[in-house]
# Entry
Amino acid sequence: MTEKTTLGAGCFWGVEAAFRKIKGVVSTAVGYSGGRLKNPTYDDVCTDQTGHAEVVQVEYDPSRVAYDQLLDLFWQLHDPTTPNGQGPDIGTQYRSAIFYHTPEQKSAAEASKERLRKSGRYQRPIVTEITPAAECYRAEEYHQQYFDKRGIAGHKFW
# Structure
Protein backbone atom coordinates (compact mmCIF):
# COMPACT_ATOMS: atom_id res chain seq x y z
CA MET A 1 0.00 0.00 0.00
CA THR A 2 1.31 3.46 -0.86
CA GLU A 3 0.96 6.85 0.78
CA LYS A 4 1.17 10.42 -0.52
CA THR A 5 2.92 13.52 0.67
CA THR A 6 2.68 16.98 -0.84
CA LEU A 7 5.65 19.31 -0.45
CA GLY A 8 6.49 22.85 -1.56
CA ALA A 9 10.17 23.81 -1.63
CA GLY A 10 10.45 26.49 -4.29
CA CYS A 11 10.41 25.76 -8.02
CA PHE A 12 8.95 22.30 -8.42
CA TRP A 13 11.15 21.11 -11.31
CA GLY A 14 14.27 20.35 -9.29
CA VAL A 15 12.37 19.19 -6.23
CA GLU A 16 10.53 16.60 -8.30
CA ALA A 17 13.79 15.39 -9.89
CA ALA A 18 15.30 14.83 -6.44
CA PHE A 19 12.34 12.82 -5.12
CA ARG A 20 12.18 10.69 -8.27
CA LYS A 21 15.64 9.31 -7.42
CA ILE A 22 14.63 7.99 -3.98
CA LYS A 23 14.16 4.23 -3.71
CA GLY A 24 10.63 3.61 -2.52
CA VAL A 25 9.14 6.59 -4.36
CA VAL A 26 6.53 5.13 -6.70
CA SER A 27 5.57 8.28 -8.60
CA THR A 28 5.76 12.05 -8.53
CA ALA A 29 3.68 14.82 -10.03
CA VAL A 30 4.14 18.56 -9.90
CA GLY A 31 1.21 20.82 -9.28
CA TYR A 32 -0.38 23.64 -7.35
CA SER A 33 -1.86 23.40 -3.86
CA GLY A 34 -2.97 25.58 -1.00
CA GLY A 35 -4.72 28.29 -2.97
CA ARG A 36 -8.16 29.69 -3.63
CA LEU A 37 -8.66 29.27 -7.39
CA LYS A 38 -10.02 26.00 -8.79
CA ASN A 39 -8.00 24.44 -11.62
CA PRO A 40 -5.29 27.12 -11.76
CA THR A 41 -2.84 27.29 -14.63
CA TYR A 42 0.84 28.10 -14.35
CA ASP A 43 0.07 31.60 -15.63
CA ASP A 44 -2.58 32.02 -12.91
CA VAL A 45 -0.21 30.88 -10.17
CA CYS A 46 2.57 33.15 -11.46
CA THR A 47 0.38 36.21 -10.81
CA ASP A 48 1.01 35.57 -7.09
CA GLN A 49 -2.72 36.15 -6.56
CA THR A 50 -4.12 32.60 -6.29
CA GLY A 51 -2.47 31.58 -3.02
CA HIS A 52 -1.15 28.31 -4.47
CA ALA A 53 2.29 26.91 -3.82
CA GLU A 54 4.25 25.01 -6.45
CA VAL A 55 4.34 21.50 -5.00
CA VAL A 56 5.48 17.99 -5.68
CA GLN A 57 3.05 15.25 -4.80
CA VAL A 58 5.05 12.15 -3.95
CA GLU A 59 3.52 8.68 -3.86
CA TYR A 60 5.74 6.35 -1.87
CA ASP A 61 5.89 2.89 -0.38
CA PRO A 62 6.37 3.32 3.39
CA SER A 63 7.79 -0.20 3.63
CA ARG A 64 10.70 0.97 1.43
CA VAL A 65 11.18 4.61 2.44
CA ALA A 66 10.15 6.28 5.68
CA TYR A 67 8.24 9.55 5.69
CA ASP A 68 11.02 11.02 7.86
CA GLN A 69 13.53 10.22 5.10
CA LEU A 70 11.38 12.18 2.64
CA LEU A 71 11.22 15.07 5.09
CA ASP A 72 15.01 14.98 5.50
CA LEU A 73 15.41 15.41 1.74
CA PHE A 74 12.76 18.16 1.71
CA TRP A 75 14.77 20.18 4.26
CA GLN A 76 17.98 19.71 2.26
CA LEU A 77 16.49 20.92 -1.01
CA HIS A 78 15.68 24.48 0.00
CA ASP A 79 16.12 27.23 2.56
CA PRO A 80 13.12 26.94 4.90
CA THR A 81 13.91 30.33 6.47
CA THR A 82 13.11 32.29 3.32
CA PRO A 83 9.51 33.47 3.22
CA ASN A 84 7.88 33.40 -0.21
CA GLY A 85 10.85 32.56 -2.34
CA GLN A 86 13.86 30.42 -3.07
CA GLY A 87 16.93 31.88 -4.73
CA PRO A 88 15.88 33.99 -7.70
CA ASP A 89 12.27 32.76 -7.53
CA ILE A 90 10.16 35.19 -5.53
CA GLY A 91 6.47 34.93 -4.71
CA THR A 92 4.09 33.01 -2.47
CA GLN A 93 4.02 30.16 -5.00
CA TYR A 94 7.64 29.40 -4.01
CA ARG A 95 7.00 29.20 -0.26
CA SER A 96 8.15 26.36 1.95
CA ALA A 97 5.19 24.13 2.76
CA ILE A 98 4.31 20.68 3.98
CA PHE A 99 0.75 19.63 3.21
CA TYR A 100 0.04 16.62 5.41
CA HIS A 101 -2.38 13.87 4.44
CA THR A 102 -2.70 12.10 7.81
CA PRO A 103 -2.44 12.98 11.50
CA GLU A 104 0.75 10.88 11.59
CA GLN A 105 2.30 12.98 8.83
CA LYS A 106 1.35 16.16 10.69
CA SER A 107 3.06 14.93 13.88
CA ALA A 108 6.14 13.75 11.98
CA ALA A 109 6.40 17.05 10.06
CA GLU A 110 6.10 19.13 13.24
CA ALA A 111 8.70 16.97 15.03
CA SER A 112 11.06 17.15 12.05
CA LYS A 113 10.72 20.94 11.87
CA GLU A 114 11.40 21.21 15.60
CA ARG A 115 14.52 19.01 15.33
CA LEU A 116 15.79 21.22 12.54
CA ARG A 117 15.06 24.35 14.57
CA LYS A 118 16.96 22.96 17.56
CA SER A 119 19.88 21.82 15.41
CA GLY A 120 21.19 25.36 15.06
CA ARG A 121 21.62 24.90 11.31
CA TYR A 122 19.76 28.15 10.69
CA GLN A 123 20.09 31.47 12.47
CA ARG A 124 16.77 32.74 11.15
CA PRO A 125 13.38 31.23 12.04
CA ILE A 126 12.05 28.36 9.93
CA VAL A 127 8.96 29.67 8.14
CA THR A 128 7.74 26.39 6.62
CA GLU A 129 3.97 26.08 6.87
CA ILE A 130 2.52 22.75 7.95
CA THR A 131 -1.11 22.56 6.89
CA PRO A 132 -3.70 19.94 5.91
CA ALA A 133 -3.44 18.73 2.33
CA ALA A 134 -5.73 20.67 0.06
CA GLU A 135 -6.76 19.93 -3.49
CA CYS A 136 -3.62 19.46 -5.56
CA TYR A 137 -4.07 20.52 -9.17
CA ARG A 138 -1.72 18.79 -11.56
CA ALA A 139 0.51 21.23 -13.44
CA GLU A 140 0.62 21.31 -17.21
CA GLU A 141 2.29 18.32 -18.83
CA TYR A 142 5.39 20.25 -19.93
CA HIS A 143 6.21 20.79 -16.22
CA GLN A 144 6.07 17.06 -15.36
CA GLN A 145 9.56 15.50 -15.10
CA TYR A 146 10.90 18.74 -16.58
CA PHE A 147 14.59 17.99 -15.94
CA ASP A 148 14.34 14.44 -17.30
CA LYS A 149 12.64 15.62 -20.50
CA ARG A 150 15.36 18.17 -21.11
CA GLY A 151 18.37 16.11 -20.04
CA ILE A 152 19.23 18.64 -17.35
CA ALA A 153 21.65 17.50 -14.67
CA GLY A 154 20.30 17.89 -11.18
CA HIS A 155 20.91 19.94 -8.11
CA LYS A 156 23.90 19.38 -5.83
CA PHE A 157 21.76 17.10 -3.60
CA TRP A 158 20.92 14.59 -6.32
